[in-house]
Automatic annotation (TrEMBL):
Family as reported in the entry's similarity comment: Belongs to the KdsB family.
Protein name: 3-deoxy-manno-octulosonate cytidylyltransferase
InterPro entries registered for this protein in UniProt: Cytidylyl_trans, KdsB, Nucleotide-diphossugar_trans
Broad class of the protein's primary localization: cytoplasm
UniProt superkingdom: Bacteria
Organism field: Mesonia maritima
One Pfam family of this chain: CTP_transf_3
Keyword terms of this UniProt record: Cytoplasm, Lipopolysaccharide biosynthesis, Nucleotidyltransferase, Transferase
Pathway involvement of the protein, from the record: Nucleotide-sugar biosynthesis; CMP-3-deoxy-D-manno-octulosonate biosynthesis; CMP-3-deoxy-D-manno-octulosonate from 3-deoxy-D-manno-octulosonate and CTP: step 1/1
Role of this protein: Activates KDO (a required 8-carbon sugar) for incorporation into bacterial lipopolysaccharide in Gram-negative bacteria.
Length: 249
Protein backbone atom coordinates (compact mmCIF):
# COMPACT_ATOMS: atom_id res chain seq x y z
CA UNK A 1 0.00 0.00 0.00
CA UNK A 2 1.22 3.47 -0.79
CA UNK A 3 2.21 5.83 1.96
CA UNK A 4 -0.26 8.66 2.61
CA UNK A 5 2.09 11.18 1.05
CA UNK A 6 2.17 9.09 -2.12
CA UNK A 7 -1.59 8.90 -2.68
CA UNK A 8 -2.84 11.02 -5.55
CA UNK A 9 -6.31 12.31 -4.67
CA UNK A 10 -8.65 14.21 -6.98
CA UNK A 11 -12.27 15.39 -6.76
CA UNK A 12 -14.82 14.77 -9.49
CA UNK A 13 -18.21 16.50 -9.56
CA UNK A 14 -20.72 14.68 -11.80
CA UNK A 15 -23.23 17.19 -13.12
CA UNK A 16 -26.37 16.46 -15.15
CA UNK A 17 -28.54 19.29 -16.39
CA UNK A 18 -31.74 17.28 -16.89
CA UNK A 19 -32.30 16.08 -13.31
CA UNK A 20 -35.65 14.25 -13.18
CA UNK A 21 -36.93 15.76 -9.91
CA UNK A 22 -35.67 19.31 -10.45
CA UNK A 23 -34.53 19.98 -14.04
CA UNK A 24 -31.78 22.56 -14.41
CA UNK A 25 -31.21 22.75 -10.66
CA UNK A 26 -27.42 23.04 -10.94
CA UNK A 27 -27.79 26.26 -12.92
CA UNK A 28 -30.24 27.86 -10.48
CA UNK A 29 -29.17 31.01 -8.67
CA UNK A 30 -27.90 30.48 -5.14
CA UNK A 31 -27.06 33.85 -3.59
CA UNK A 32 -25.53 35.31 -6.74
CA UNK A 33 -23.81 32.19 -8.07
CA UNK A 34 -25.11 29.01 -9.68
CA UNK A 35 -25.42 25.88 -7.55
CA UNK A 36 -22.71 24.11 -9.56
CA UNK A 37 -20.31 27.05 -9.21
CA UNK A 38 -20.76 27.09 -5.44
CA UNK A 39 -20.15 23.34 -5.25
CA UNK A 40 -17.04 23.56 -7.44
CA UNK A 41 -15.58 26.45 -5.46
CA UNK A 42 -16.31 24.73 -2.13
CA UNK A 43 -14.36 21.65 -3.30
CA UNK A 44 -11.41 23.73 -4.50
CA UNK A 45 -11.30 25.76 -1.28
CA UNK A 46 -10.76 22.64 0.86
CA UNK A 47 -7.19 22.41 -0.55
CA UNK A 48 -7.38 18.62 -0.25
CA UNK A 49 -7.10 17.68 -3.92
CA UNK A 50 -4.46 17.69 -6.63
CA UNK A 51 -7.29 18.52 -9.03
CA UNK A 52 -11.03 19.30 -9.04
CA UNK A 53 -13.11 18.60 -12.14
CA UNK A 54 -16.76 18.90 -13.16
CA UNK A 55 -17.83 15.98 -15.38
CA UNK A 56 -20.95 16.72 -17.37
CA UNK A 57 -23.06 15.82 -20.40
CA UNK A 58 -24.31 19.41 -20.63
CA UNK A 59 -22.82 22.18 -22.76
CA UNK A 60 -24.52 24.69 -20.45
CA UNK A 61 -22.78 23.36 -17.33
CA UNK A 62 -19.48 22.81 -19.18
CA UNK A 63 -19.49 26.43 -20.34
CA UNK A 64 -20.41 27.67 -16.85
CA UNK A 65 -17.36 26.02 -15.29
CA UNK A 66 -15.04 27.12 -18.10
CA UNK A 67 -16.35 30.68 -17.70
CA UNK A 68 -15.20 30.83 -14.08
CA UNK A 69 -11.79 29.35 -14.93
CA UNK A 70 -12.60 25.88 -13.62
CA UNK A 71 -11.79 22.45 -15.03
CA UNK A 72 -14.60 20.66 -16.88
CA UNK A 73 -14.72 17.34 -18.73
CA UNK A 74 -17.41 16.52 -21.28
CA UNK A 75 -18.78 12.96 -21.08
CA UNK A 76 -18.39 10.97 -24.28
CA UNK A 77 -21.19 8.51 -23.50
CA UNK A 78 -24.66 8.59 -21.99
CA UNK A 79 -24.65 7.55 -18.31
CA UNK A 80 -27.38 6.62 -15.85
CA UNK A 81 -25.46 7.57 -12.71
CA UNK A 82 -22.65 9.72 -11.40
CA UNK A 83 -20.24 6.86 -10.72
CA UNK A 84 -20.35 5.77 -14.38
CA UNK A 85 -19.79 9.34 -15.52
CA UNK A 86 -16.76 9.72 -13.23
CA UNK A 87 -15.34 6.31 -14.13
CA UNK A 88 -15.27 7.20 -17.82
CA UNK A 89 -13.43 10.43 -16.98
CA UNK A 90 -10.76 8.86 -14.73
CA UNK A 91 -10.16 5.59 -16.57
CA UNK A 92 -6.92 6.84 -18.11
CA UNK A 93 -5.85 9.21 -15.32
CA UNK A 94 -3.02 8.40 -12.92
CA UNK A 95 -4.91 8.65 -9.61
CA UNK A 96 -5.35 6.54 -6.48
CA UNK A 97 -8.40 8.00 -4.73
CA UNK A 98 -11.29 9.71 -6.49
CA UNK A 99 -13.69 11.77 -4.38
CA UNK A 100 -17.18 12.10 -5.86
CA UNK A 101 -18.68 15.40 -4.77
CA UNK A 102 -22.34 15.65 -5.78
CA UNK A 103 -23.04 18.74 -7.87
CA UNK A 104 -26.09 19.56 -5.75
CA UNK A 105 -24.17 19.55 -2.44
CA UNK A 106 -22.76 23.12 -2.23
CA UNK A 107 -22.14 23.04 1.54
CA UNK A 108 -19.27 20.57 1.68
CA UNK A 109 -16.59 21.34 4.26
CA UNK A 110 -12.90 20.59 4.60
CA UNK A 111 -13.29 18.97 8.04
CA UNK A 112 -15.76 16.32 6.80
CA UNK A 113 -13.73 15.54 3.69
CA UNK A 114 -10.57 15.17 5.78
CA UNK A 115 -12.35 12.61 7.99
CA UNK A 116 -13.48 10.77 4.88
CA UNK A 117 -9.97 10.56 3.44
CA UNK A 118 -8.37 9.56 6.75
CA UNK A 119 -9.90 6.07 6.50
CA UNK A 120 -7.52 5.22 3.66
CA UNK A 121 -4.61 5.66 6.09
CA UNK A 122 -6.17 3.68 8.98
CA UNK A 123 -5.42 0.13 10.13
CA UNK A 124 -8.28 -1.40 8.14
CA UNK A 125 -7.55 0.64 4.98
CA UNK A 126 -6.79 -2.49 2.94
CA UNK A 127 -10.39 -3.67 3.47
CA UNK A 128 -11.94 -0.44 2.14
CA UNK A 129 -13.06 -0.18 -1.47
CA UNK A 130 -14.81 3.14 -0.98
CA UNK A 131 -15.92 5.41 1.85
CA UNK A 132 -18.79 7.80 2.37
CA UNK A 133 -20.40 10.09 4.95
CA UNK A 134 -23.43 9.76 7.23
CA UNK A 135 -25.10 12.12 9.65
CA UNK A 136 -27.76 11.57 12.30
CA UNK A 137 -31.38 12.33 11.44
CA UNK A 138 -33.26 14.12 14.18
CA UNK A 139 -36.90 14.43 13.07
CA UNK A 140 -39.51 11.88 12.05
CA UNK A 141 -40.22 13.95 8.95
CA UNK A 142 -36.61 13.56 7.80
CA UNK A 143 -36.54 9.85 8.64
CA UNK A 144 -39.67 9.23 6.56
CA UNK A 145 -38.57 11.43 3.63
CA UNK A 146 -37.59 9.18 0.68
CA UNK A 147 -35.25 11.90 -0.61
CA UNK A 148 -33.15 11.37 2.54
CA UNK A 149 -31.36 8.09 1.87
CA UNK A 150 -30.84 6.10 5.06
CA UNK A 151 -27.87 3.83 5.82
CA UNK A 152 -27.25 1.10 8.39
CA UNK A 153 -23.81 -0.27 9.24
CA UNK A 154 -22.13 -3.07 11.14
CA UNK A 155 -20.15 -2.48 14.35
CA UNK A 156 -17.06 -1.55 12.31
CA UNK A 157 -18.96 1.12 10.35
CA UNK A 158 -19.10 -0.80 7.09
CA UNK A 159 -22.39 -0.27 5.26
CA UNK A 160 -24.94 -3.08 5.37
CA UNK A 161 -27.68 -1.40 3.32
CA UNK A 162 -28.95 1.90 1.97
CA UNK A 163 -32.64 2.66 1.49
CA UNK A 164 -35.12 5.42 0.80
CA UNK A 165 -37.30 3.74 3.42
CA UNK A 166 -36.69 4.14 7.17
CA UNK A 167 -34.27 1.40 8.20
CA UNK A 168 -34.29 -0.42 10.52
CA UNK A 169 -38.00 -1.00 11.04
CA UNK A 170 -38.61 -0.20 14.71
CA UNK A 171 -40.68 -3.17 15.84
CA UNK A 172 -39.29 -2.80 19.37
CA UNK A 173 -40.26 0.76 20.24
CA UNK A 174 -37.88 0.70 23.23
CA UNK A 175 -34.78 0.01 21.13
CA UNK A 176 -32.14 2.73 21.18
CA UNK A 177 -31.68 3.42 17.48
CA UNK A 178 -30.17 6.39 15.68
CA UNK A 179 -31.26 6.84 12.09
CA UNK A 180 -28.55 8.04 9.73
CA UNK A 181 -28.81 9.97 6.50
CA UNK A 182 -26.34 9.09 3.80
CA UNK A 183 -24.55 12.17 2.47
CA UNK A 184 -23.74 11.52 -1.18
CA UNK A 185 -20.02 12.25 -1.04
CA UNK A 186 -17.80 9.26 -1.84
CA UNK A 187 -14.09 8.49 -1.87
CA UNK A 188 -13.32 5.58 -4.19
CA UNK A 189 -10.25 3.58 -4.85
CA UNK A 190 -9.86 3.94 -8.59
CA UNK A 191 -10.01 0.18 -9.15
CA UNK A 192 -13.33 -0.11 -7.26
CA UNK A 193 -14.80 2.67 -9.36
CA UNK A 194 -13.72 1.01 -12.61
CA UNK A 195 -15.11 -2.34 -11.44
CA UNK A 196 -18.45 -0.60 -10.87
CA UNK A 197 -18.30 0.91 -14.37
CA UNK A 198 -17.98 -2.49 -16.02
CA UNK A 199 -20.59 -4.34 -13.95
CA UNK A 200 -24.32 -4.38 -14.83
CA UNK A 201 -27.03 -2.98 -12.57
CA UNK A 202 -28.73 -5.59 -10.35
CA UNK A 203 -32.16 -5.71 -8.74
CA UNK A 204 -31.64 -3.72 -5.53
CA UNK A 205 -30.06 -0.78 -7.31
CA UNK A 206 -32.82 -0.85 -9.91
CA UNK A 207 -35.56 -0.95 -7.25
CA UNK A 208 -34.27 1.86 -5.02
CA UNK A 209 -32.47 3.82 -7.77
CA UNK A 210 -29.41 4.08 -5.51
CA UNK A 211 -26.11 3.43 -7.27
CA UNK A 212 -24.27 2.65 -4.02
CA UNK A 213 -26.28 -0.58 -3.80
CA UNK A 214 -24.41 -1.92 -6.84
CA UNK A 215 -21.21 -1.89 -4.80
CA UNK A 216 -22.85 -3.85 -1.98
CA UNK A 217 -24.50 -6.31 -4.34
CA UNK A 218 -21.10 -7.13 -5.85
CA UNK A 219 -19.40 -7.48 -2.46
CA UNK A 220 -17.52 -4.18 -2.21
CA UNK A 221 -16.82 -2.74 1.25
CA UNK A 222 -18.13 0.76 1.95
CA UNK A 223 -16.73 2.45 5.05
CA UNK A 224 -19.12 5.00 6.56
CA UNK A 225 -17.78 8.02 8.42
CA UNK A 226 -20.04 9.94 10.78
CA UNK A 227 -20.07 13.71 10.51
CA UNK A 228 -22.06 16.52 12.08
CA UNK A 229 -22.15 18.32 8.73
CA UNK A 230 -25.67 19.67 8.25
CA UNK A 231 -25.72 19.73 4.50
CA UNK A 232 -28.56 20.70 2.19
CA UNK A 233 -28.71 18.67 -1.00
CA UNK A 234 -30.61 20.54 -3.70
CA UNK A 235 -33.20 17.92 -4.69
CA UNK A 236 -36.30 20.14 -4.89
CA UNK A 237 -37.20 23.83 -5.24
CA UNK A 238 -37.92 23.79 -1.50
CA UNK A 239 -34.34 22.65 -0.84
CA UNK A 240 -33.06 25.54 -2.93
CA UNK A 241 -35.03 27.99 -0.79
CA UNK A 242 -33.58 26.44 2.38
CA UNK A 243 -30.07 26.82 0.93
CA UNK A 244 -30.70 30.46 0.06
CA UNK A 245 -31.89 31.16 3.60
CA UNK A 246 -28.82 29.41 5.04
CA UNK A 247 -26.46 31.59 3.00
CA UNK A 248 -28.42 34.72 3.91
CA UNK A 249 -27.84 34.15 7.65
Amino acid sequence: MKKPSDLKIIAMIPARYAASRFPGKLMKDLAGKTVIQRTYEAAVETNLFQGVYVVTDSDIIFDEIEKIGGKAIKSKKEHDCGSDRIAEAVENLDVDIVVNVQGDEPFIQQKSLEKLLEVFYAEDAAEIDLASLKTALETEEDILNPNHVKVITNKNDFALYFSRSPIPYLRNKEAKITYYKHIGIYAFRKEALLDFYHLPMLGLEDAEKLEQLRYLEYGKNIKMVETDLKTIGIDTPEDLEKARKLLAN
